[in-house]
């Protein structure tokens, strides 16, 4: 039975190296992170339209995020209904020549809820939301942590075959 709470998960999808550029000194990791609302209540939090990575942190100083290019990054209020999940694919990089790399990394999600006064939401600006999220990042406040993920070389399948049931529903086909 699942607990009635917000859960944050992280799953390593694939790891990459750039064989075509011998000067590239990094390994890259594609990680799928999800905030899952296993409650009976709506969960609201602020993020940004392009920069949702502002909400995502790790417990490691040995990896860095690759950020999205974006022309207009605006604050947005996400409303996550009961039994919904908020999913983001992130790309991490680390120096491939680093010694003593700790492969087990926890991911965290910062919940920045809207401020209220007398039961009403108080309007905030992009700058205020960004400043609050940056401060929460520094202090690691309001963070829901995942279990550790092992960032190693992966043996992933570069493709999958799906059976089309209708325009938006698929089932997984078995591979021979």
Please outline the helices and strands.
Elements: E1 6-17, E2 26-37, E3 43-48, E4 56-58, E5 64-65, E6 75-80, E7 85-95, E8 104-105, E9 107-110, E10 116-117, E11 120-121, H1 126-139, E12 143-145, E13 149-150, E14 162-166, E15 169-172
Antiparallel strand pairs: 1-2, 2-7, 3-6, 4-9, 5-7, 8-13, 9-12, 10-11, 14-15
Structure description:
- The model has no long low-confidence stretch (mean pLDDT 86).
- This protein is mostly beta strands.
- β1 and β2 (26-37) form a beta hairpin.
- The longest helix is centred in the C-terminal third of the chain and has 14 residues, at 126-139.
- The chain starts with 5 loop residues before the first strand and ends with a strand.
- The chain has one helix at 126-139; strands at residues 6-17, 26-37, 43-48, 56-58, 64-65, 75-80, 85-95, 104-105, 107-110, 116-117, 120-121, 143-145, 149-150, 162-166, 169-172.
- It has one domain: Immunoglobulin-like, CATH 2.60.40.
- 8% of the residues lie in helices and 43% in strands.
- Strands 1-2-7-5 form a four-stranded antiparallel sheet, with no helix packed on it.
